[in-house]
């Protein structure tokens, strides 16, 4: 019985410690980012398939915000989702313009 | 000291991780199209290999051997390497954004690089002590850097060469990798 329990305990203990460490590191070394990036990632399919040419959906979101890509460049996206992202981006750019004008 | 020199040399050339042990082939083919990205990948791999090998070596000696469950090493090492790469990524993002941008895409790729796991396991199966392990890992990493850099220079030249259509891209790269591996296998006579 111990033969099975011991590896399980060691491995889950190790996983727990590493998980805590990652959590700790990510809190200590937290970097402020544009919250819009995460909001766009939520609108994208989140497959991280790389078909757009970026390594993942997050990089695609950054490219969308800097106008390097269009939402339609995302290959696996559902048709009805494209206008939703476009609307979000239009709002984002409008807000940015207004802020710059003020 | 002499032994360490021999170890360093054999790790660098004779037991070259790519061309003699055939580990880490994916980044070797995938990230070698440009010299700058090959250099970035090589440095990142060396860095991650050093950290993960040190941690896995200590874990093996003081946890797995203590509980006599050494057969668990592969799964434990995978867990440790994946978490370490994650932590290094978060750490770099905060401390050095320029380095993070330079390595950014390659760091997550290294999590699944079998070279890193391979070195961690080789260190154990060859029963190295801590100093030998550090020397071996460093020079395996530098060997990776060296070969991927040479290969990227060859591939940059290849862009301007008349390659038959059927061989363009990855096929001709594999042919060249094979020729390089033949050359490296002949270095075995030096020691």
Task: Give structural notes.
The complex is a heterodimer of chains A (102) and B (191). By secondary structure, chain A is mostly helical. Chain A folds into two domains: 1-31; 35-101, 3-methyladenine DNA Glycosylase II, Chain A, domain 3. Chain A has four helices and no strands. Chain B is an all-alpha fold and 191 residues long. Chain B has one domain. Chain B has helices at 2-14, 25-30, 35-64, 73-95, 97-103, 106-111, 114-125, 130-158, 170-185. In chain B, helix 1 runs parallel beside helix 8 (130-158). Chain B is globular and about 60 Å long. Chain A binds chain B through residues 6-7, 10-11, 14-15, 18-19, 21-22, 25-26, 29-31, 55, and chain B through 59, 63-64, 67, 69, 72, 75-76, 79-80, 83, 86-87, 90-91, 93-95, 105, 108.
Could you say how many structural domains of chain A there are in total? 2
CATH third-level topology of the largest domain in chain A: 3-methyladenine DNA Glycosylase II, Chain A, domain 3
Distance between the termini of chain B: 16 Å
Counted up, domains of chain B total 1
- Taken in chain order, the helices and strands of chain A follow as HHHH
Structural class of chain A: mainly alpha
Short description:
Chain A is mainly α and 102 residues long. Chain A has helices at residues 2-28, 35-43, 57-65, 81-101. In chain A, helix 2 (35-43) packs across helix 3 (57-65).
SSE layout:
The complex is a heterodimer of chains A (102) and B (191).
Chain A: H1 2-28, H2 35-43, H3 57-65, H4 81-101
Helix pairs in contact in A: 2-3
Chain B: H1 2-14, H2 25-30, H3 35-64, H4 73-95, H5 97-103, H6 106-111, H7 114-125, H8 130-158, H9 170-185
Helix pairs in contact in B: 1-8, 3-4, 3-7, 3-8, 4-5, 4-7
